[in-house]
Design goal:
This protein has 438 residues and is mainly alpha-helical. The protein has 20 helices and three strands. The chain has three domains: 174 residues, Hypothetical protein af1432 (Orthogonal Bundle), CATH 1.10.3210; 124 residues, no CATH class; 79 residues, no CATH class. It is globular, with a radius of gyration of 22 Å. It starts with 21 loop residues before the first helix and ends in an 11-residue tail after the last helix.
Amino acid sequence: MNVRKLRLYDTENVHSGEDRDEFEKDYARLIQSPSFRRLQGKSQVFGAGSGDYYRTRLTHSLEVSQIAREVARRLGKPYPFLAAKAHPGLMLDPEVVEVAALAHDLGHPPFGHKGEEVLNDVLAAEHGLKYEGNAQNFRILMFLEKRAGSDSGLDLSAAVLLGINKYPYCIDEPGRVKGVYRTEWEGIEYLRRLWGMPEGCATLEAQLMDLCDDIAYSTHDLEDGIRAGKIPMSRTLFEDDRIIAHLIREIEDDPGNKDMNWEQVDLPEMVRRVLGDYLAQWETIYTECDGEPSRTRREMKARWVRRFANQVGILDDAARGWKKVTFIREGAEDLELLRTMEILKKLAWVTLIKDFRVQRLHKRSEIMIRGLWDSFKTYETGRLILPPDWLETYEAQKGTWPWERLVADYLSGMTDAYAEKVYAEFFASRSGSIYERD
């Protein structure tokens, strides 16, 4: 039995032809799914519909998948243990990494991280439940999506499911903020036991997908910010003490930064140096591109992606008895480059997400999500305004999942535009036929 190509709910491949490789089938199932198509209408940084230039969750996912596939292909040569295929979790198949990257953001609701935050708030406050984008990924892939011959999601291969699982924990455990909801965790945990995965360790494919997501975030979101004029490429911004102080505070307050050993460096000095080097590089490329901002943005982004991607490698993780995908220089983890990437990620965060105009959009988004939640959350009235197929799904599985979880599923699947449309139907003063609104 090939445990990497095993499917949880179709172990005999009854509903799967023999004309394609299993990972090719995963790719087809994913990109033809409604959840994948809806990513085109979900915010990345700027709201979907803000302009043709700016990235959405769909274009972001495509870019992450391209980076991840190319890095996986490159890493297959210098590491002999990968070719040995001694452990299913210590392999790097470019096709698996590509599909995992394409699927990594399916669980994000409308309006980006603000939508995720609001859904988690209302579920926690009213029902003691959690909402988290990574966990919702598995809810979609293993239950909500439907394919011919299956009522158990897309029934993707084990390698792809574990390649998406960058947080290998049950989120319903006390204190967990990221992971997998308990019902889906039963299947993921079964696969991890079958593979002999060490507790708390992600597969190399999941680690690579996660790192390439960060590479895209720290380069592409900055490109969008520069294009939008939110990040003026001038010393006025890059030497602003308030921006630098805000960056430092975001780094210090982020619990995900504990492994970067920031205490070993002079953080204010490093932030200033990274920002100074970034601006100096921009000025050099701007001259090389004859003063054309568009060419400069693209070249700047390309050079940083290349710099990050070329430093990705694999090390022994002695603390876990496993392997680690990370940036490498001279045979050791390149903490300097990891910290640099984190500073650039935080630069995008403080200049884009924390901008007061973006915050106003977030407040508007919060009002809409809370209004929609209040409209659907009570079964007696919510069932009257929920689409019939969703009501049928609830009736078929209400012994497993409560009503409020299904409402969160419905709201999280909305695109930005559809959420605004439904909100307007409920709360805006409008006239005309209801049939003209669909």
